[in-house]
Amino acid sequence: MLLFLQQRFMKILVCISNVPDTTTKVTFTDNNTKFNTTGVQFIINPYDELALTRALELTEKQGGTVTVINVGLADAEPSIRKALAIGATDAVRINAEPTDAFFVAEQIAIYAKTQAFDLILTGRESIDYNGGLVCGLLAGMMGIPSVNVITKIEIENGVATLERDIDGGKEKLSCPLPLVASAQKDLTEPRIPNMRGIMAARTKPLQIMEAIEAIRPAVTVGFDLPPAKGACRMVAPENAGELISLLHNEAKVI
Predict the structure, then answer these.
(1) 46 within a domain of the structure (yes/no)
(2) I want to staple 211 with a disulfide (CB 3.0 to 4.6 A). Which of 96, 115, 173, 221 is the partner?
(3) Calpha distance 142→145 (Å, rounded)
């Protein structure tokens, strides 16, 4: 007698942000209350791209689907389509401006609770605001565990084995699914979409959902650029006394 066992495929959700390229010259508008997007090239947040690549590696190993989700406006769709070209199965865009981490996490949590994902991956932080909050907030809102800044993850029999850097060493953890984890730079190497992926991305499903009314607890009062660097004063090597005097009387660091 032949027994047919149905393999359980994993469902993975990857949260992606649409962020300015790292070469962007930062300026502000509206009395320094809004980031000036004029002429800015936007990309997938690099840490999120690592999360996406690792999700694809996991599903290629044992089967499954990878959904990408973005809280953003229509101008984020090129980044979403790139994620689909890299290999994501489908995508969701929550149609709202991502004004703060709490709002973003809440919108993603509302969607994810209806889909029974086994694993949710985020980047460790977005390179524009560098908050690093969405992973923990999202897990808290969903009532599942979270592990931050992971450098390794393997899944076997419904249990995730993870590794992350800590002061003075590495920490190894195991946790049953579902869980939320955020990707650190050593997790994997990002993929470059090939022509087949780019063509396939045009027909992959992109679901657009309106945001759920939610409290936005953070309010942006304004932005300030860091002060310009001061002039560099050169001190001859033989003038150690002058250097000590400057550090003591002007720099006031000794």
Answers:
(1) yes
(2) 96
(3) 9
